[in-house]
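Exercise 7b. Backbone tokens:
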């Protein structure tokens, strides 16, 4: 006989008791992207490149175009007026359909290293102020965000970007390694110091990226080990868990460092296998080794065609209900100190 009544209960319950939710759980999407909305898209650097031209990223957006009513989603589009009619309201509609209370949006500030014969750079810019006004303030209780940071213009500018995110009320910053370079670049260290001072966390892209001018070498999760070693009190969220680059190292980072967390977002859903959402062994590994340190996110609107189905799949897996609730909501709520505006 088990001494602990909770253990005994778990051993005696049947499948229905273990699997069925007594009331619907409000989920949280830890990772979505503002900026691709039609309104003013040509004023935000790089955002049109998600929809326009014949590139890997524009092809992976064809599913979203179909969902948004484009009668010819496989056709190549080139102009802002041809971009699909995505808006902040679309985000809320999809969240409502999937029973998602809130989403953490990524404001982005990225400038690539020079590339190609003419040494051009590619910029991706989704301003903090835009995300705050058009999402967070427009839909109270539904969004939070992290502010874009890089050190291409020096350490002082990077610190200013942290301060800007703080002034917008964001709980953290996002360093998009694919454009911005190595996360353990010493030029970024004053920005991390600033985050510690202001009580903010840092999100780092890891894995792979199909955007123009992005280099894979910057995106290895191995570089985050340095940051976690040098800043043991800095809360670090490793985005994408190093998928297609070095996922094993991504998992190890979370097990090694108390201050390291990860999400299970797949960056290019139409082109990649779905290991992080559909592989039972993988999800069991997460449940066993890091049940409190992993977050469910989606890269919306890229995952628009499967937005609810992906979550339904996770909720139907034979893993504990406790872990499902942690993974799809409560871990991230705790991580950012989210206070729900909804009544119980
Ligand atoms: Zn993303």
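Sequence design result:
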């Amino acid at each position: 006989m088990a001494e602990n009544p909770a253990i005994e209960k778990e051993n005696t319950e049947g499948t229905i008791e273990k699997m069925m939710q007594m009331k619907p759980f409000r989920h949280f999407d830890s990772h979505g992207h503002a900026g691709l909305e039609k309104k003013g898209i040509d004023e935000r650097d790089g955002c049109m490149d998600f929809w326009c031209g014949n590139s890997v990223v524009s092809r992976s957006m064809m599913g979203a175009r179909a969902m948004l009513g484009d009668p010819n989603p496989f056709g190549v589009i080139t102009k802002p007026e041809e971009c699909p009619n995505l808006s902040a309201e679309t985000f809320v509609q999809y969240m409502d359909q999937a029973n998602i209370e809130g989403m953490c949006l990524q404001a982005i500030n990225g400038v690539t290293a020079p590339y190609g014969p003419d040494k051009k750079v590619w910029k991706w810019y989704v301003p903090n102020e835009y995300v705050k006004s058009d999402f967070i303030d427009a839909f109270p209780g539904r969004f939070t965000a992290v502010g874009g940071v890089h050190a291409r213009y020096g350490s002082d500018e990077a610190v200013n970007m942290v301060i800007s995110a703080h002034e917008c009320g964001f709980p953290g910053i996002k360093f998009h390694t694919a454009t911005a370079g190595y996360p353990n670049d010493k030029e970024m260290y004053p920005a991390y110091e600033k985050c510690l001072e202001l009580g903010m966390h840092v999100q780092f892209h890891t894995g792979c990226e199909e955007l123009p001018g992005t280099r894979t070498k910057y995106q290895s999760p191995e570089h985050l080990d340095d940051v976690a070693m040098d800043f043991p009190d800095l809360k670090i969220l490793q985005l994408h868990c190093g998928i297609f680059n070095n996922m094993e190292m991504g998992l190890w980072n979370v097990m090694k460092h108390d201050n390291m967390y990860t999400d299970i977002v797949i960056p290019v859903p139409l082109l990649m296998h779905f290991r992080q959402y559909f592989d039972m062994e993988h999800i069991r590994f997460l449940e066993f080794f890091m049940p409190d340190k992993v977050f469910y996110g989606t890269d919306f609107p890229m995952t628009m065609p499967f937005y609810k189905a992906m979550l339904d799949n996770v909720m139907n897996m034979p893993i504990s209900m406790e872990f499902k609730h942690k993974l799809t909501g409560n871990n991230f709520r705790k991580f950012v100190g989210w206070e729900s505006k909804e009544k119980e």
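Instructor comment: The pocket of zinc ion is lined by residues 31, 33, 106, 299 (CB under 6 Å). The chain has a mean pLDDT of 92.
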